[in-house]
Structures are given as structure tokens and as C-alpha cells.
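Explain this record to help learners:
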Amino acid sequence: MKDENCHPAPTNEAADESPVVEVVIEVPRGCFLKRGSTGHIDFISPLPCPFNYGSVPNYLGLEGDLLDALVLGPRLPLGTRLRIRAWGAVTLTDRGMSDDKLVCSTAPLTAAEREKVLRFFRFYARCKALLNHWRRRPGRNACEGWRTASEAIARAAPVDGNWKGPPVRF
């Protein structure tokens, strides 16, 4: 369930709300290069990415790019493909566009892990607002809170054979 104030959701999600998805890693944990789903470097971060970050290749998020996913745990090499359970999702607004990010792990998330993910995305939204201002890309940036993985997937669309990349530059 979405939490408007970016606080962790209750930890008793049903198994059907934690689907198994395929994730391709685009930004290994600790990496400074932020790559998009097409492999293009979006920007060089002043801080290393605290999670393995990638996408689900068979779903498009609301902003028209592949559905984002982060994988908790040890660093995974760039290009790693894995099937893993999504225990929830964080919704980020970037330049006014809603962007769900599945949160994946080999085990259910603890309350502390959820809070760490939300804390990161609150900070990330503020940093992204500054970057977008500098790039002259208007629109609201915010962490909108937690939702179930099933809700995020239901908001996504299946990828069709015509998808060539995101419709907007990130």
C-alpha cells in the first residue's frame, strides 16, 4: 500500500504481492556511472549507488522506460540477469513523471532495509531535482512512498517488439 509520507509499509505482505521477476543489472552496487536501460550513460554520480540497480526487461514503467528494479545484497556484475522476488516498490516522481522501482532481494525485507531504501530515494529525489534544474528540465521531483510490487507491476505495461528506448531523455 502506498504511504504518502515515505514511511515504511507494514511488513506482512502476502506471497502473491511479492512476485518473482527477471532483472538485468545496469548499475552494480558501488558504481558511480548511472546507465539507462539502453546502456547509455545518463550521468556520473558524485556518490556510489548503494544498491544493484537495473530493470525488468519485459515491463515498461509509467514513464515509458523499462520498469526499474533494485537488488539488495552483494555487488552484482554489470549485465547480470537474475530471477528474484520483488518484495515491494518505491514510487519516485522525476520531472513530473511517475517512476516505480521494484525492490528485490533473496529474502523478505526488514523494516530497517525498507527505511534505508526510502531514505535513499528521498535523498535521490532532492539530488535529481538539482540535476534537472541544472539541465533545465522542469517538473516535480519527490519520493512518493512505498507500494506493493504487485501494484507497481499492474501499473506497468508489457514490452512489445517496437520498444527502442525511453521516449524522453533521462
In short: DSSP finds two helices and nine strands in the chain. The beta strands are 20-27, 33-35, 41-44, 52-60, 66-71, 81-94, 97-105, 142-147, 157-158. The first strand starts at residue 20 and ends at 27. Residues 111-134 form the longest helix (24 residues).
